[in-house]
Amino acid sequence: MNIHEYQAKELLKSYGVRIQEGIVADSPEGALEAAKKLNAATGTSWYVIKAQIHAGGRGKGLVNETGSRGVVLAKSLEDVPVKAAGILGGTLVTIQTGDEGKKVNKVLVAEDVYYPGASEPKEYYLSILLDRGKGSNVIMASTEGGMDIEEVAEKHPEKIIKEWIDPKVGLQGFQARKVAFKLGLEGNAFKEMVKFITSLYNAYVGSDSAQFEINPVLKTSDDKILAVDAKVNLDDNALYRHQDLAALRDVAEEDPLEVEAGKSGLNYVKLDGNVGCMVNGAGLAMATMDMIKLSGGEPANFLDVGGGANAVTVEAGFRIILQDPNVKAILINVFGGIVRCDRIANGVVEAYKSIGNIPVPIIVRLQGTNAEEGARIIDESGLKVSSAITLKDAAEKVKAAIS
Ligand code: GDP
Ligand code: MN
């Protein structure tokens, strides 16, 4: 589960990670109030207004309605509500949102931390994630902060520092020092970076996160190290033991169809193709999507109805798939192992009748226990549903349905 930057920064701060301070607001007046409080607390007289959406690239992204960037600087208190109004309520399009963009409901009003001083402010990159291959957590760091890290990884892989941490042993002091040293830091900035990495790692483990990405980490002109941005991805499987973090979920940031599917216990991911599919088991779902591609179609979704495919789950699946206007045909591919094919076939017929007129052809491929009986039930239903037993047969019927 992803959370907003302002929530991620609060989480980090609670573990002692130094952050660029800020206050969230949902109106221009609220933004002004936030700026006044921030001025009183930190003395800052410049402010950064940052769109809160679950996507990066905001600084370079544009708000459709106003042409404002998603991260802007206000150099006076009066300028804060004006700049906030250019972002709030608009649709921000960045390289990570897709062309449709994301509606901005909140802004973070943050202190300016790029103030002039003894040295130039310098941006670094830092992330912590799970390396499944090595069964370890890994800290990735780079002096190329603020840049697109994928680009750095591709063009200058030598500029990415990696330090693996055995989860049973935890982060050792020398490892944090090694990263800070490789980043070329010295003096107070070195000490600050060691502290930053250590508390960041504690936050990562303590919150059961799957990924942290801090881009940029800033060395201020007076050698403080702090998080300017924060992307936190929490491990869904551990949310049950973090009720406070689970409450940070923002469904407005999620695909409405995926939210609805989740409520019915379905595992649904929307894709861009024209053939909807409904399958029991994630592996079979992947194979079915491959099969749709081989037949000349494109999968419109991934949908795993889980082990207990029945009339209720099939109906919920139908309703979700049919909300996608791109769908030209639906392929149901179910393996009757624990559930028998005749029961699934009856479930499909029942769900179909309950929905009424389904405007696209449906191909049902049932294999396993009582497969022939299942096919017979489908064929004799009198509905716009055709049966298949082999994958090849199903693929041909899908092809005919969409061409
Ligand atoms: P992203 O574009 O979504 O990754 O948003 P970031 O939080 O990383 O901010 C984008 C950019 O805004 C940063 O790389 C900085 O260049 C700039 N920025 C952020 N905070 C400040 C600030 O306090 N002062 C100034 N002058 N620029 C800032
Ligand atoms: Mn960033």
From TrEMBL:
<dbReference type="InterPro" id="IPR016102">
    <property type="entry name" value="Succinyl-CoA_synth-like"/>
</dbReference>
<feature type="domain" description="ATP-grasp fold succinyl-CoA synthetase-type">
    <location>
        <begin position="2"/>
        <end position="217"/>
    </location>
</feature>
<dbReference type="GO" id="GO:0042709">
    <property type="term" value="C:succinate-CoA ligase complex"/>
</dbReference>
<dbReference type="InterPro" id="IPR013815">
    <property type="entry name" value="ATP_grasp_subdomain_1"/>
</dbReference>
<keyword id="KW-0067">ATP-binding</keyword>
<keyword id="KW-0436">Ligase</keyword>
<comment type="subunit">
    <text>Heterotetramer of two alpha and two beta subunits.</text>
</comment>
<comment type="function">
    <text>Succinyl-CoA synthetase functions in the citric acid cycle (TCA), coupling the hydrolysis of succinyl-CoA to the synthesis of either ATP or GTP and thus represents the only step of substrate-level phosphorylation in the TCA. The beta subunit provides nucleotide specificity of the enzyme and binds the substrate succinate, while the binding sites for coenzyme A and phosphate are found in the alpha subunit.</text>
</comment>
<dbReference type="GO" id="GO:0006099">
    <property type="term" value="P:tricarboxylic acid cycle"/>
</dbReference>
<feature type="binding site">
    <location>
        <begin position="337"/>
        <end position="339"/>
    </location>
    <ligand>
        <name>substrate</name>
    </ligand>
</feature>
<keyword id="KW-0460">Magnesium</keyword>
<dbReference type="InterPro" id="IPR005809">
    <property type="entry name" value="Succ_CoA_ligase-like_bsu"/>
</dbReference>
<dbReference type="GO" id="GO:0000287">
    <property type="term" value="F:magnesium ion binding"/>
</dbReference>
<keyword id="KW-0479">Metal-binding</keyword>
<dbReference type="GO" id="GO:0005829">
    <property type="term" value="C:cytosol"/>
</dbReference>
<dbReference type="InterPro" id="IPR005811">
    <property type="entry name" value="SUCC_ACL_C"/>
</dbReference>
<dbReference type="Pfam" id="PF00549">
    <property type="entry name" value="Ligase_CoA"/>
</dbReference>
<dbReference type="Pfam" id="PF08442">
    <property type="entry name" value="ATP-grasp_2"/>
</dbReference>
<feature type="binding site">
    <location>
        <position position="113"/>
    </location>
    <ligand>
        <name>ATP</name>
    </ligand>
</feature>
<dbReference type="GO" id="GO:0006104">
    <property type="term" value="P:succinyl-CoA metabolic process"/>
</dbReference>
<feature type="binding site">
    <location>
        <begin position="57"/>
        <end position="59"/>
    </location>
    <ligand>
        <name>ATP</name>
    </ligand>
</feature>
<protein>
    <recommendedName>
        <fullName>Succinate--CoA ligase [ADP-forming] subunit beta</fullName>
        <ecNumber>6.2.1.5</ecNumber>
    </recommendedName>
</protein>
<feature type="binding site">
    <location>
        <position position="215"/>
    </location>
    <ligand>
        <name>Mg(2+)</name>
    </ligand>
</feature>
<comment type="similarity">
    <text>Belongs to the succinate/malate CoA ligase beta subunit family.</text>
</comment>
<comment type="pathway">
    <text>Carbohydrate metabolism; tricarboxylic acid cycle; succinate from succinyl-CoA (ligase route): step 1/1.</text>
</comment>
<feature type="binding site">
    <location>
        <position position="123"/>
    </location>
    <ligand>
        <name>ATP</name>
    </ligand>
</feature>
<feature type="binding site">
    <location>
        <position position="229"/>
    </location>
    <ligand>
        <name>Mg(2+)</name>
    </ligand>
</feature>
<dbReference type="InterPro" id="IPR013650">
    <property type="entry name" value="ATP-grasp_succ-CoA_synth-type"/>
</dbReference>
<keyword id="KW-0816">Tricarboxylic acid cycle</keyword>
<feature type="domain" description="ATP-citrate synthase/succinyl-CoA ligase C-terminal">
    <location>
        <begin position="278"/>
        <end position="398"/>
    </location>
</feature>
<feature type="binding site">
    <location>
        <position position="50"/>
    </location>
    <ligand>
        <name>ATP</name>
    </ligand>
</feature>
<dbReference type="InterPro" id="IPR017866">
    <property type="entry name" value="Succ-CoA_synthase_bsu_CS"/>
</dbReference>
<keyword id="KW-0547">Nucleotide-binding</keyword>
<feature type="binding site">
    <location>
        <position position="280"/>
    </location>
    <ligand>
        <name>substrate</name>
    </ligand>
</feature>
<dbReference type="GO" id="GO:0005524">
    <property type="term" value="F:ATP binding"/>
</dbReference>
<dbReference type="GO" id="GO:0004775">
    <property type="term" value="F:succinate-CoA ligase (ADP-forming) activity"/>
</dbReference>
